[in-house]
Specification:
Length: about 450
């Protein structure tokens, strides 16, 4: 409050971290951040909910909860609670990083195991965040790059199944689903080609809207849930019983370590590109702790992990709008949207084929982002060996899960069909044993 008293509110302050901005003028900037992450915030929920066989009512409730928890998490990052939060313009949302592992854990052990593992993993990441300065160098950029690439490849079959109608759909692969998925995908691509300037990042949102309209015309949308939704509703505490399955916990904790590495990357990228300085240990520690503890809180309300959103880091770099109070209005918008259940109900009515038409392109972008991360690490002989071996082992061995028959059950359940966990372990081991000195660097020009 003292800040508002000591400085005059001005629209010019949007380019400063702490200057007060008039509420009416800050709302559009906050809304822009919400739109940039809106689709990516709900897509993981719909994918995991579909794989786990949740009802449309439960899916709508999770979407509603996700928007509220994402808004709360963003406020914690902006203004901190004790040592949790970075005091930086970091926007939070449901992460795609966990989708592949949850699509493995959910059908095998149930949605309760997903939430139980997410709760424990969030606590682990939150506590590790306080000691980030001591361990973050173990998970080097090349390790994170390999894991992100593996996540992208592991999600491609998920996107393909959604495109065809969703896991277990009675009309899987039907002409109608092919038409919806194709039309949505073409709409995304067309908008990306012809849109100008700041509109280009909205290509996925445009594709979803276009596909949804076509689905309405085809009679593929069930709005009965939206019609029966109440006016205002708050999330329920523990709507699902948490199941603490050891195999699920081990698998998910590994991905939390990957998520922590991505958060380090997001935080350092934001401070270096926008604030023109290096991130402090306190900022990195706070951002990781926020990811972990808010994710645990999210699981208690039946929702998936909440982490920093790279899309919004790119938006900050493009617009240079870093004001914490302006971005806080976006967090407020998310919370308000989550309080009205009709929003979640309408989003939950989105047909799987429409979602698949967009996610195919989004998952492909994750693959390319991982490959670009590998390139940005430099094409030294050391990095090439780490990337080549970890991806070959992780993606290759899991295509022949029978080869794990000689191992104990815990090893088979964690690694036999989970390429991301296997890539992570292989990359960590190679990163530790490969010598740092005597490298012959052959960096390719990036243009």
């Amino acid at each position: 409050m003292g800040l508002f008293k000591s400085r005059e509110a001005s629209i010019d302050n949007i380019y400063t971290l702490d200057g007060p901005v008039p509420l009416a003028k800050s709302v559009p900037f906050g809304l822009q951040h919400v739109l940039a992450m809106f689709v990516a915030n709900i897509a993981p929920i719909m994918i995991v909910a579909g794989v786990c066989g949740l009802s449309p009512q439960d899916t709508a409730s999770l979407i509603q909860t996700a928007m509220i928890v994402a808004g709360v998490g963003t406020l914690v990052q902006l203004f901190t609670v004790w040592k949790v939060g970075a005091r930086l313009p970091i926007v939070m949302g449901v992460s795609f990083t966990f989708v592949s592992i949850f699509c493995f854990v959910g059908p095998k052990w149930g949605f309760g195991a997903v939430l139980g593992a997410a709760f424990v993993g969030g606590i682990v990441e939150g506590l590790l965040g306080f000691f980030a300065r001591y361990w973050r160098r173990i998970i080097s950029p090349i390790v994170a790059a390999c894991v992100v690439t593996a996540i992208g490849f592991s999600l491609l079959p998920v996107g393909a199944n959604s495109f065809a109608g969703g896991f277990g759909a009675k009309d899987f692969g039907s002409v109608q689903n092919w038409a919806l998925g194709t039309f949505t995908l073409v709409s995304c691509i067309g908008f990306n080609i012809f849109a100008k300037g700041n509109l280009k990042p909205l290509s996925v949102l445009f594709g979803l809207v276009a596909g949804y309209v076509l689905a309405l015309l085809m009679g593929k949308v069930d709005l009965s849930l939206a019609a029966s939704a109440g006016a205002v509703s708050l999330p329920r505490f523990m709507p699902f019983e948490l199941d603490f399955n050891l195999s699920a916990i081990i698998s998910v904790v590994m991905i939390y370590l990957v998520s922590a590495t991505e958060t380090i990357g997001d935080t350092t990228a934001m401070t270096s590109t926008v604030l023109k300085r290096e991130a402090t240990d306190r900022e990195i520690s706070g951002s990781i702790a926020c990811d972990g503890f808010v994710s645990s809180l999210s699981s208690l309300f039946g929702c998936l992990p909440i982490t920093s959103f790279s899309q919004n880091i790119g938006l900050l770099a493009m617009t240079k709008v870093v004001n914490r109070y302006a971005i806080a209005t976006g967090a407020g918008i998310m919370i308000l949207a989550g309080i009205f259940p009709v929003v979640g109900a309408v989003l939950a009515s989105l047909p799987e084929a429409v979602l698949g038409g967009c996610t195919i392109m989004m998952f492909g972008n994750i693959v390319i982002a991982g490959l670009m991360m590998i390139g940005s690490c430099g094409y030294s002989q050391r990095n090439i060996v780490i990337a080549a071996l970890s991806l070959s082992v992780g993606l290759g061995f899991t295509q022949a899960p029978q080869m794990f028959a000689i191992f104990p059950d815990i090893v088979r359940t964690v690694f036999a069909e989970n390429c991301v966990a296997l890539v992570f372990i292989a990359a960590i081991i190679m990163n530790l044993i490969m010598p740092q000195e005597g490298e012959v660097k052959a960096r390719m020009p990036l243009k």
